[in-house]
Design goal:
It contains twelve helices and twelve strands. The strands form two sheets. Strands 3-2-1-4-5-6-11-12 form an eight-stranded mixed sheet, with helices on both faces. It has a four-stranded mixed sheet with strand order 8-7-9-10. The protein has helices at about 25-35, 75-85, 95, 100-105, 120-140, 165-175, 195-200, 210-225, 240-245, 250-270, 315-335, 360-375, and strands spanning about 15-20, 65-70, 110, 145-150, 180, 200-205, 230-240, 275-280, 285-295, 305-315, 335-340, 385.
């Protein structure tokens, strides 16, 4: 049962700046928020709309204002129509929330670097940060949460900042809380590590836990708690859409699988034999099938097998979590919390900070975090108190960036690219 929507006491407006803003996940986020706000659909899948979070002081869904970056130009209303045709969105919803989709689309700015883009990293970061601050100024939002929902990029090689890290650096530059819902590098690039740890904003990630790994985070502890020896755990993912195309790249698939493997190692106490294979099947569109084969030993060495099949729509699974995270991180920023929000590990395969890997334990951490948000207790946990990041500049030459004001220094190390076409 859903609780009544909660809102901050002063009724502020909150910006949600989506990286990959014209992709399937982002479109479902915008359309879904509008549908729930209008009472057209219930908030199914939104943990923050359950009674445990009713008193956390989260921004109301009706207060969220959307914008973002993308490198594609398909308008959100048209993208929503395509998702409705594929069964991701309810038929008729794109027209019912057309005004909201069009309003969000007007706030989307070109991402990068694009082919032939001659701007260096410092210039790209400065441009992206200016887009975010201009959005906040024009819309009058009290704060903006930057959320990466772009296609998975390969793990970087060398010192160059990948696109996800350029956007993350821009979020720091603009003084914005940041969420990485993808397996991409984001704030975890070595060149940004010190700035991320020192930033006076909260941040969370990495890689949203929506399907196969969600199930693994429940089943792994079950085997460990029942003292059943897991001999091997193998899996296969069949998926299409933008994420399927991106993960056809073995390097991108390796970045995705790292989080899946971490969950098993953490919940079982050690790595186990077996791999996850990801196959791009364009005909599946936004739908995904995940199959797991678990070989385990019982009493007196009896050999047994558990097989699971998960069939779901990635965008529909991800969108409510993105809305949850935007609200929780916005509220944390309002409360003055800064640094890595390990208490949000419930939502991620590879979360920042320290914390449990079992879903049940992670949910307990999340509920306690909601209590902190409600009463403003700052108890010296993972997040620390702090103010806003200043309007520091990112630039300089000779391979390093200087700072202006009190903003973070980000090393300028070359060009990088990323395609933002949905997860």
């Amino acid at each position: 049962m859903s609780a009544s929507p909660s809102a901050s006491s002063h009724g502020s407006r909150t910006g949600v700046w989506l990286i990959g803003a014209r992709g399937s996940v982002a479109t479902t986020v915008v359309a879904g928020c509008a549908a729930v706000t209008a009472g057209l659909n219930p908030p199914t899948g939104m943990v923050t709309e359950t009674p445990d979070f009713a008193d956390a002081g989260l921004p109301a869904l009706s207060s969220l204002v959307f914008g973002g970056h993308d490198t594609v130009d398909c308008p959100l209303p048209k993208r929503a129509e395509a998702l409705a045709a594929g069964g991701v969105l309810p038929h008729g919803l794109p027209s019912a929330v057309g005004a909201e989709l069009a309003a969000a689309d007007r706030e989307i700015r070109p991402g990068g670097p694009m082919p032939g883009d001659t701007r260096d990293e410092a210039e790209l970061i400065t441009a992206f940060a200016a887009d975010i601050t201009d959005f906040a100024r024009r819309t009058g939002v009290d704060r903006t949460v930057v959320v990466n929902v772009a296609s998975t990029e390969p793990a970087p090689t060398g010192g160059a900042l990948p696109a996800s890290s350029l956007y993350a650096a821009a979020a720091l530059r603009a003084g914005c809380p940041y969420v990485n819902f993808t397996p991409s590098t984001g704030l975890r690039h070595p060149a940004l590590a010190a700035e991320a740890e020192a930033a006076a904003v909260p941040y969370a990630g990495r890689d949203g836990k929506t399907g196969q790994t969600l199930l693994r985070s429940v089943l792994g502890p079950m085997f460990a708690q029942r003292a059943l020896a897991v001999r091997a755990w193998s899996g296969t993912n069949l998926l299409g859409g933008g994420d399927g195309a991106a993960l056809a790249d073995p390097a991108a698939a390796a970045a995705k699988n790292a989080g899946k493997e971490r969950v098993l190692a953490d919940t079982l106490g050690a790595p186990v034999e077996g791999e996850v294979h990801i196959d791009d099947v364009p005909a599946l569109g936004d739908w995904k099938t995940a199959w797991d084969h678990i070989a385990f030993d019982g009493f007196l060495g009896a050999r047994m097998v558990l097989q699971t099949t998960w069939q779901g729509c990635d965008s529909s699974l991800a969108a409510p979590l993105v809305l949850d995270l935007a609200r929780l991180v916005a509220r944390a920023h309002e409360r003055g919390l800064t640094g890595p929000l390990g208490e949000l590990g419930f939502y991620f395969k590879d979360p920042v900070g320290d914390g449990p890997s079992s879903l049940a334990e992670q949910y307990g951490e999340l509920k306690r975090f909601a209590g902190r948000l409600a009463d403003g207790v700052r108890d010296g946990g993972v997040a620390k108190d702090g103010g806003d990041v200043g309007d520091g500049g990112v630039g300089g030459d000779g391979g390093h960036a200087g700072t202006a004001g009190d903003g973070p220094a980000v090393r300028s190390v070359g060009h990088a690219g990323e395609r933002e076409a949905g997860r």
